[in-house]
């Protein structure tokens, strides 16, 4: 039987660069840092080749943007009870918030194209 708590949970399908996916369920109060730690602590068996050394280098990408550590799923207004897809990548540092737009204004002759494999 589905409870109200189940309906309030956020379902994430995380995709690695390799294309492997895994579904997880989180509270809307969970932050990007909480999610990275949970995934690291519960690393899926099928992802062994992609295992990282620390949860601190796991980064979430949603709608083309890196999520900074304190951003909660609730703040993203994700639909509860439905599955949302995010990319999970290993990266030491994140770009500063809004730095992409500033860089575009300063360098108008450079292309800022990104390809996810």
TrEMBL record:
Residues 10-88 form the Ubiquitin-like domain. Residues 93-112 are annotated as: Disordered. Keywords: Cell membrane, Lipoprotein, Membrane, Methylation, Palmitate, Prenylation. Gene3D superfamilies: Phosphatidylinositol 3-kinase Catalytic Subunit, Chain A, domain 1. InterPro entries: MUB (IPR017000), Ubiquitin-like_dom (IPR000626), Ubiquitin-like_domsf (IPR029071), UBL3-like (IPR040015), UBL3-like_ubiquitin_dom (IPR039540), UBL3_Ubl_met (IPR047977). It is a lipid-anchor. One of its GO terms (cellular component) is plasma membrane. It comes from the Eukaryota. It holds the Pfam family Rad60-SLD_2. It is found in: Cell membrane. SUPFAM superfamilies: Ubiquitin-like. This is Ubiquitin-like protein.
């Amino acid at each position: 039987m589905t409870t109200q708590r189940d309906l309030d949970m956020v379902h994430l399908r995380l995709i690695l660069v390799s294309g492997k996916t895994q579904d997880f369920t989180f509270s809307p109060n969970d932050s990007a840092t909480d999610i990275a730690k949970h995934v690291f602590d519960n690393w899926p068996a099928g992802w062994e080749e992609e295992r990282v050394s620390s949860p601190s280098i796991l980064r979430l990408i949603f709608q083309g943007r890196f999520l900074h550590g304190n951003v909660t799923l609730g703040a993203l207004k994700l639909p509860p009870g439905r599955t949302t897809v995010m990319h999970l990548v290993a990266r030491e540092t994140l770009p500063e918030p809004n730095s992409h737009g500033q860089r575009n204004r300063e360098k108008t002759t450079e292309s800022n194209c990104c390809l996810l494999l």
